[in-house]
Write a structure and sequence with these properties.
Strand content: 25-35%
Distance between the termini: 31 Å
Order of helices and strands: HEEEEEEEEEHH
Number of strands: 9
Radius of gyration: 23 Å
């Protein structure tokens, strides 16, 4: 099964909100200002936590959601009826398996997903998100330092090539230094 940007966004939104198992009895709320917004295959969508905190609501501007015949996944189709994304309703993590209970409303334009069968550890999810952000920040810092060192080395090499050579060697050295710095753990 192909995992694309829509599926990844939906899964991250569920994990990041730290949802617990439960049933949604209220009507789905419209995605608010804390929504993750995007466009997938020309379909605009917004995904946000439900008002009661027990689910994730995704609303599309065009297209529609539908439950597959075997009830194992939800599909997103464009206005022409072509399936552009499929979201499985069961996930396995290293620790447990959990499912998602779908509720489709608004003529298929709104999908509410509620976790079933497992409690999501919000502290662990927050720690994973923080670790990912820290790793990216560290890699960007290393890339900047690497670019400076690479530019310096390129300048020295360019100086020995007659001075004008620095116009070529400085950007090349900075680029190589940035790549090396970013790939450093």
């Amino acid at each position: 099964m192909k995992v694309n940007a829509f599926t990844a966004t939906a899964v991250l939104a569920i994990g990041a909100t730290g949802l617990t198992a439960g049933t949604v009895n209220a009507q789905p709320a419209v995605a608010t200002d804390n929504a993750v917004r995007g466009v997938e295959h020309g379909i605009e969508y917004a995904a946000a936590p439900a008002a009661d905190g027990n689910g994730v609501i995704t609303t599309v501007a065009s297209g529609s959601f539908a439950l597959t015949g075997n009830a194992q996944s939800v599909t997103l189709s464009d206005s022409a009826g072509n399936v552009v994304a499929t979201l499985p309703l069961a996930f396995r993590t290293a620790d447990a398996k959990f499912g998602l209970a779908p509720q489709i409303s608004d003529a298929g334009r709104t999908l509410t997903l509620t976790p079933v069968g497992a409690r999501v550890d919000t502290q662990q999810n927050a720690q994973l998100i923080d670790e990912a952000a820290d790793t990216l920040a560290r890699k960007q810092y290393n890339a900047g330092i690497g670019a400076l060192i690479g530019a310096g080395i390129g300048g020295v090499i360019g100086f020995f090539l007659g001075g004008v050579g620095a116009l070529v060697t400085v950007p090349i050295g900075a680029g190589i230094g940035a790549l090396i710095g970013f790939s450093t753990p």
